[in-house]
Amino acid sequence: QVQLVESGGGLVQAGGSLRLSCAASGLALSSATMGWFRQVPGKEREFVAAIRASGADADYADSVKGRFTISRDNAKNTVYLQMNSLRPEDTGAYLCAATFGSVSRVAFAYPHWGQGTQVTVSS
User: What are residue 51's phi and psi, to 5 degrees?
Assistant: First the structure.
């Protein structure tokens, strides 16, 4: 059974940084494309970043490009999201997702999801 567990969220002031982690079990992370999505109540799940199994390619939403970096440590079965220069509009629950398909910005392309970690950015 695939399990994804996020951690690292919290309350931070605008301009600050956080690093989120997603620990995977029940799958070989080296075979999976991994994504991060943001969920805000009343809104659709929003793509943030994704990284190919090899780690060679990454994709970012325009709103986070240049500020966020997705990375992976396949030996530790963990994916990270380094978030710098945080803004109040980055606030939301950040969910980790896994697929054995290609990098995608579409939530339903990812069959496996974590429960999320809350990030709150104050102005």
Answer: -140, 140
